[in-house]
Amino acid sequence: MLATGWLTACLVMQVLPAGPIETGRGTVTISGEITATAGEKDQSAYFNFTDYEHNALRMFRLSVSGMWRPSPRFAFLTEVRSENVERMIPYALYVRVRPWMSRPFDIQAGRIPPVFGTFARRSYGTDNALIGYPLAYQYLTSVRPDAVPANADDLLMMRGRGWRVTYPVGNKTPGPGVPIVTAYRWDTGVEASYAGETVEGAFSVTSGTLSNPRVDDDNDGRQLAGRVAWHPAIGLTLGASGARGAFVDRAIVDAYEAPLGPHDYTQDAIGVDGEYSRGYWLVRGEAIFSRWALPKINMPFIDRPLDARTAYVEARYRFTPRLFAALRADTLGFSKISGQRFFGGQPTPWDAPVTRVELGGGVNIQRNLTLRTVVQHNWRDGGRVHERTYVSGQLSYWF
Amino acid sequence: MRAIFAAAVVACFAVSATLPVASFRLPAAGFALPAAGLRLPASGSAKVGVIRGRVDVRIGPSADVRPDPASLGMGNTRDAQDRRRSVVFLESFPRGAFERVPSDRHARMDQKNERFVPHVLAIAAGTWVDFPNGDRTYHNVFSLSKTKEFNLGRYAAGHSESVKFDQPGIVRVFCEIHSHMNAFIVVIAHRFFATTDDEGRYQIDGLPPGTYSLSVWNESIRGDPPKRTVTMGDAGDVDAVDFVIR
């Protein structure tokens, strides 16, 4: 009787996933992730909207990833995703080639992950320390690629209204503005990367920009982007990124080429990032400076490119194998312009600056099943709603 | 309607996630008591025997690597996971099988090239397992298993952390940073077990004459594990106690 029970425990396997589905003699692997996020409706402040209809703190997302690797040198990868049970959209679809097997150098072509920064490559529910996204990667500014303000007053009138922007030039249909770097769509093009032990680097040529990734090119311009990262010690990564690409839609560029002369209406961005982890701590941070150049059409002119500066720091700590807590502090600011009709003609940030603090915790019910909850507070110096607190809960499952 | 559908899908996944992926179901009276009158022979006794055999696992190796569309490259080339390694153990056992494991007994599970080595480690309850990091990157070994829940945190190459496994059971081990890293620690209450070698062979030593029930554990087994009853006479060794796992 001494050990009648031991074998029962021994033979009941752990409650754990089988991992990815493999087929085709191991050459095809499929994995998935389901994330259900519940929160209150928001029809006035729109701090967490990723476009006019999708709220990052109130979303159901299903994603399926697949990889076919017929040989060690080649792999075909895809990820399709549906938000709120809408149609599945190919988020990623590209070929990966390793020309020399002995060197960690790869080329990827198709709809590819961004090389700029870090967050857009780890925005999955499982990789995100919290539920919300950093402002740089989600918050909708009042800039649009297909519609532009005719003067500074048009732009100032849209302060804090990035979820639904209208301008008199270009597409007059109300639509969402763009974040500095979108984590919700990937660009199309070619990239090359090298991943050494202490230094890594990546460079890409794509058809869109950081804030407006595209499958079809809307302006015949190319974006050049790159990132280098240094690992001076195990657990520490320091990175720097840069990008420059044609931003404004070709129809607008063409319409104003004759009166204004040829110009490059680009989005330029530089960023630095860092990550340090040790023991039960993980700390990450990024700072990004972005600049959009728009046509100077009417008085009062938008006489300088529109700058945006953003930075965030986040930390996660694991108390037990299952319990963790995380915190992110985030800020987004804008350069100043002067209009005539608003703010007494005084220099004013062209969009409303935002500050966000998000605090949360979670429990790993299983390795691949996580329940989280967060409290997020936002301050905005403009717009319809200046301050708003959100509470959100999320259940995420992956295999 | 969408919300209802979404909730239903989440519920389905949540429920499925709580189901064991691989489990053994044993009959209620599936454990034989120690064979009556059997005692471990005193040291130096000649009347001990050996059970030998082979476990034929007819499944292929697995890379266990999720597709990584967010990655900028192939990553490190990794060996496929050998899922054929099995643990054969006695379900019925001689009296005296549960002598204390020395408190300083250590086993080792390395982290090399983003793999746990070995992939399957069988130990007697009470054994410490060392987890040295042999890679030039952080690893974070953890387990959420009921048998032993632990998280060693992130530590660098050349460092090692240890965990003592007191309770019998299966402990599934993962790395929090590298989702493809996984391993099994099979903790057994006595010392009559063996892990199969590259050819699937095993050998359990030091058994007195008697009738024993043998069982086998492998990560791919679904449902009841195969078993064999073996009678060891005074003559000693028993050969060719084989298992097939499909």
How would you summarize this macromolecular structure in one to three sentences?
The complex is a heterodimer of chains A (399) and B (246). With 399 residues, chain A is mainly β.
Describe the structure.
- The complex is a heterodimer of chains A (399) and B (246).
- Chain A is mainly beta and 399 residues long.
- In chain A, 7% of the residues lie in helices and 47% in strands.
- Chain A contains four helices and 21 strands.
- In chain A, the strands form three sheets. Chain A has a 16-stranded antiparallel barrel with strand order 2-3-4-5-6-9-10-11-12-13-14-15-16-19-20-21.
- The N terminus of chain A is likely disordered.
- Chain B is mainly beta.
- Chain B has a five-stranded mixed β-sheet, with no helix packed on it. Chain B has a four-stranded antiparallel β-sheet with strand order 13-2-15-16, with no helix packed on it.
- In chain B, a hairpin with a 6-residue loop joins strand 11 and strand 12.
- The N terminus of chain B is likely disordered.
- The interface between A and B is large, with 78 and 79 residues.
Keywords:
heterodimer; A: 399 residues; mainly beta; two-stranded antiparallel ribbon; 4 helices; 21 strands; globular; disordered N terminus; B: 246 residues; five-stranded mixed β-sheet; four-stranded antiparallel β-sheet; 1 helix
Q: How many angstroms does the end-to-end distance of chain B come to?
A: 43 Å
Number of DSSP helical runs of chain A: 4
Terminal-residue CA separation of chain A: 39 Å
Q: Name the overall outline of chain A.
A: globular
Strand order of the largest sheet of chain A: 2-3-4-5-6-9-10-11-12-13-14-15-16-19-20-21
Q: Could you give a short account of the major beta sheet of chain A?
A: 16 strands, antiparallel, barrel
